[in-house]
Amino acid sequence: MTDLPERPSYFRYAFANLYNLSLLGGAAVAAAATDDWAVAAIAGGLEVIWLAIGADTAPFRRWVDRQHRKELNTAAKERRRVRILALPDQRDRERAIDLIEAHILMGKELEKNEHWTAELVGDEYSRLESLLDAFVELAEAVARFDRYLQQSDPNKLRKDIARQKQLASVPGGDPETTALATRNVDLLEKRATTLVELGRLVERTRAQMSVIENTFNLLRDQIVSLKPPQDIKGQLDEIVAGVDAVRAVLADGDLASTAVAPPLEESAPAPNPRQRVR
Question: Are residue 139 and residue 10 in the same domain, yes or no?
Fold first, then answer.
């Protein structure tokens, strides 16, 4: 899907809207049917005036802004739908779909309770939409780090550390081999620390996802039960701050998962010259 620009093209909307195209088409058909091309000429002149003047009027621009916002929202929802379907974890997909259904339900219930409109429907209800995207974003990050952690074998890593320490401590060993083994120990221990930190990051991210999920469910329950939500702005401010904090840590986690180099076993002389180095 082609991304829409943030600002609309008023000229495009002025020309390519159903009413304008219908009038132009009708004038062309009438001119052809009556063989009176003056009709087409008049229609063309009016079209030029409309595009030059009408498209720049304030009422028309307000109409275009509303239509463009609808198109942007539709495009954003479609992108979110594609991202949700691409999540590898079925449970996360189901949770995201449940949140969307809760959001839709809240919107329908709020339409029935006009006295809540000023409290939630405006800016705060729009912020719930952004939290849906945040939930999907966090789910994508969890899937990425889970995949990375599954590719790492902690037991093998511990054995590699022990083996490299043994190489580094051989009495009278080759100095170059000892130096490389020492370097490998340092790298492997950093990898082990990174894996532990990534595991904690996954737990923290999932906890933040649960905060978003539970907040949505609480708001839905309060609205359906006709109980006005309390301090909705404060709750959303707190969630947004938490999501931003997790995003910052996730960015560091992405760097950590790629910055640690693999061990340099291939550089150290192997005890068996025929042994295959992987």
Answer: no
Q: What is the mean pLDDT of residues 202-226?
A: 85
State which residues form the domain around 46: 1-85
277 inside domain: no
CB atoms within 10 A of CB 92: 20
Show which of 85, 104, 134 is a domain's final residue: 85
Q: Report H helices in the chain.
A: 10-15, 18-34, 37-52, 58-85, 90-112, 123-150, 154-168, 175-224, 232-259
- The set of residues, in sequence order, having a beta carbon less than 8 Å from that of 175 and lying 6+ positions away, is none
Q: Count the domains in the chain.
A: 2
Regarding pTM above 0.70, the answer is no
Residue 187's pLDDT is: 93
Rounded Cα distance between 218 and 106, Å, is 11
Max Cα-Cα span within the chain: 107
In a domain, 278, yes or no: no
